[in-house]
Amino acid sequence: MKKIIIITGANRGLGKALVDMSIKDENTLIVSLSRSLHEEHKYLVDSKLIFIKTDLSDSFSVSVFDIIGKHIQYDDTLYFFNNASVILPIDRIGNLSELDIERSIKVNVQYPVNFINFLLNQYPKNKTVLVNISSGAGNNPISFWSLYGAAKAYMNLFFKVLETENKENINISIFSIDPGVLDTGMQQNIRDNNFPNQDYFISLKEENKLIKPEDVVLSIFNEINY
Ligand SMILES: NC(=O)c1ccc[n+]([C@@H]2O[C@H](COP(=O)([O-])OP(=O)(O)OC[C@H]3O[C@@H](n4cnc5c(N)ncnc54)[C@H](OP(=O)(O)O)[C@@H]3O)[C@@H](O)[C@H]2O)c1
């Protein structure tokens, strides 16, 4: 009876902090669906962490479950953190490239939706905790963040429907959690790109107001009773 923690984008930012905090629990196996493995996580591979090299902008393939499935027992609790996300391009609608639109939808929506759909289909009897890392950008229109905000809004509603469908299901817990403004690469992307509200985000960094990912993980674990 172990916890299997599946995290997208586990190589940096909030995803890396999720790995760092999860491994403190002895009874845990982490599955990283990421494009790379952080140097500090290499020693975990095989014993505590399974790295499945994944570009989430590629089409979802059920073959990922050929690997994950080998480790899942009937009494394991499955956690899925929909963490990876891409905020770029930050630009006005009209200037977006077809490739950028496709990449944003695939990473932010298509991959996680397919993954959750297949996970629930294959493992209906396991205790399952699904965590969507959301954003205020999914509730408010921010100029030049159309693709990111729309994707976050999509996932918010998808998770609300998941919750509604599983109200009576004691095996499934559903969470959508807005982590706040974090000191990660995503904020660097935001500061590096011109848009109407850019100065506000630059000032958050200058005034040391960005939240450390490790602090957010503690409150996420608290919220999901990890
Ligand atoms: N940072 C904030 O202020 C903030 C605020 C609200 C919500 N959030 C949410 O918090 C979550 C974590 O964000 P973060 O701040 O940690 O962002 P981050 O530092 O930019 O990290 C993004 C993660 O997503 C991965 N990723 C992006 N494109 C990918 C792809 N095609 N295939 C595989 N992985 C891909 C990145 O991996 P690579 O290294 O391979 O690119 C990285 O691990 C996101 O859902 C974000 O929307 C963040």
Give the helices and strands, then pairings.
Blueprint: E1 3-8, H1 13-22, E2 28-34, E3 49-53, H2 64-68, E4 77-82, H3 98-122, E5 127-133, H4 146-165, E6 172-177, H5 185-192, H6 198-206, H7 213-223
Parallel strand pairs: 1-2, 1-4, 2-3, 4-5, 5-6
Helix pairs in contact: 1-7, 3-4
Bound molecules: NADP nicotinamide-adenine-dinucleotide phosphate (NAP).
The site of NADP nicotinamide-adenine-dinucleotide phosphate has 27 residues, from α1 and α5.
Total separate domains: 1
* Major pleated sheet: 6 strands, parallel
Name of the CATH class: Alpha Beta
Number of helical regions? 7
The total strand number stands at 6
Summarize the structure.
It is globular and about 50 Å long.
Overview of this protein structure:
By secondary structure, the chain is an alpha/beta fold. The protein has a single domain, classed as 3-Layer(aba) Sandwich (Rossmann fold). It has 7 helices and 6 strands, in the order E-H-E-E-H-E-H-E-H-E-H-H-H. It has a 6-stranded parallel β-sheet with strand order 3-2-1-4-5-6, sandwiched between helices. Helix 3 links the parallel strand 4 (77-82) and strand 5. Helix 1 crosses helix 7 and helix 3 (98-122) runs parallel beside helix 4. The longest helix is centred in the middle third of the chain and has 25 residues, at 98-122. It is globular. NADP nicotinamide-adenine-dinucleotide phosphate is lined by residues 9, 11-15, 34-36, 54-57, 83-86, 107, 133, 135, 179, 181-182, 184-187.
